[in-house]
Amino acid sequence: MDFGGMNYLAILAAAVAAFLFGAAYYTALSKPSIRASRLKPEEMKPGAAPFITSFVAELVMAWVLAGVIGHLGPGQVTLWNGIVSGAFVWLGFMATVMAVNHRYQGFGWDLTLIDAGHWLGVALIMGAVIGWFGV
């Protein structure tokens, strides 16, 4: 098995781009997302911890996705292969885990679809950035 390596600037850029996408996505869908999550706006306490956790998690996700894409081998870390890899990772791991967790937690499919759309965007953006930057 060949390994194409990782571009740490690409990993950082992918995490930042995904974080910004998430901010825009959930800003646009804040009301349906809050309703689907059964949260009460008056009880929500804003703080930095969820944002810090999100960004650190997205750094880890970008690093792992870079490893997955890098395993395609030298010359295979491309924009298209990054997008395809992101889509496969989303479908195989992110979407399935969310669907299972939301069913056990008693949430409706509306929350699953909202969150799945976010994570699909994250995976595609990360894959595209990593593939575009190359190794």
Q: Can you walk through the features of this model?
A:
The protein has 135 residues and is mostly helical. It has one domain (8-133). 75% of the residues lie in helices and 0% in strands. α1 (8-28) runs antiparallel to α5.
Overall tally of structural domains: 1
SSE string: HHHHH
Number of helices: 5
Q: How much of the residues is beta strand, in percent?
A: under 5%
Number of strands: 0
Query: Poorly predicted ranges (pLDDT <50, ≥5 residues)?
Result: none
Roughly what percent helix? over 70%
Over all CA atoms, what is the radius of gyration?
16 Å
Instruction: Give the biggest beta sheet.
Output: none
Key terms:
135 residues; mainly alpha; 5 helices; globular
SSE inventory with pairings:
Elements: H1 8-28, H2 30-36, H3 49-70, H4 79-104, H5 109-133
Helix pairs in contact: 1-3, 1-5, 3-4, 3-5, 4-5
Concise description?
This protein is 75% helix and 0% strand.
